[in-house]
Write a structure and sequence with these properties.
This protein is mainly α and 67 residues long. It has a single domain, classed as 434 Repressor (Amino-terminal Domain) (Orthogonal Bundle), CATH 1.10.260. It has 5 helices and no strands.
C-alpha cells in the first residue's frame, strides 16, 4: 500500500492541509492519518472511498492503477 500512502500525502499537501486538519475534516484521529501516510496500516475499502470522494479522485488513482 506504499502508493496509497504516497498519494494520500501528496493530495493532502496539495490541498494545503495538515494531518490534523484533514483528520478533523473527515472525523478521524490525526494518528490514523499518520499511519496511512507511513503505510503502517492498510486502508479499508470504506477509507479508500472516503479519501477518494474527499479529494475528488478515483480509488484506482489512490491505489496506483491510474496516473
Amino acid at each position: 500500500m506504499k502508493i496509497f500512502s504516497q498519494r494520500l500525502k501528496e493530495l493532502r499537501k496539495d490541498a494545503g492541509l495538515s494531518q490534523i486538519a484533514l483528520a478533523k475534516e473527515l472525523n478521524l484521529d490525526k494518528s490514523t492519518i499518520a499511519k496511512y501516510e507511513t503505510a503502517a496500516i492498510p486502508p479499508s475499502i470504506e477509507i479508500l472511498v472516503l479519501f477518494a470522494k474527499y479529494f475528488h479522485v478515483s480509488t484506482d488513482y489512490l491505489l496506483g492503477f491510474e496516473e
